Structures are given as structure tokens and as C-alpha cells.
């Protein structure tokens, strides 16, 4: 198990609970199979990027929020990168690209 996998699993649980969602509610909103969120939160499967995107959308969080990134003014390159990623994501949704 990687530290990143553990972080993602814990972060999904924290954000889900913060939103007042059960595992079942998140599975339904993210169009995931039964018990899939339970398995992710308990580090059973390796999560696919596409699945993580569905979960983030269902939780209504963006990349910086999900990864709990607090940016400082001196991180201007990182701010620009994240802004570019947001624009790309918006374009994908705009044109229905998955």
C-alpha cells in the first residue's frame, strides 16, 4: 500500500462525512458499484483516476480542495498550473469529454 493510496482513501472518507453522505449515497451519486466506497476507504482496490474524478465530482470538490492544497503567493507557478488544470477540466465537461 502506498502513502498516496492511503491519503486518497482517508481523504474520500473525510470529505464524504463532511458532506453528510453515507457510503451508499456517494456510490449512487458517483455511479459506482455496491460496497465500492467501502472497499476504497479500506484500501482494498487501487483506485482508477476516472473513479477518483467521479468521486470528486459527486463530493463537489476540485483538485486543490481534494488534496487539501493551501497555496501561498510565492507558489505562483503552482497556482498557474492548477488554474490551467481547472480550465482543461471545464473544457472537458463543456464538450462532454470523459
SSE inventory with pairings:
Blueprint: H1 3-18, H2 23-29, H3 36-41, H4 49-59, H5 63-66, H6 76-94
What does this molecule look like?
By secondary structure, this protein is mostly helical. Helix content is 64%, strand content 0%. It has six helices and no strands. The two termini are 28 Å apart. The model has no long low-confidence stretch (mean pLDDT 84).
Shape: globular
The structure class reads: mainly alpha
The H/E string reads: HHHHHH
Percent strand? under 5%
Largest sheet: none
**Helix fraction by DSSP (H/I, runs of at least 4):** 55-70%
Assembly type of the shown chains? single chain
Give me the Rg, rounded. 14 Å
Uncertain residue ranges: none
Could you provide a short overview of the structure?
64% of the residues lie in helices and 0% in strands. The protein is mainly alpha-helical and 98 residues long.
Keywords:
98 residues, mainly alpha, 6 helices
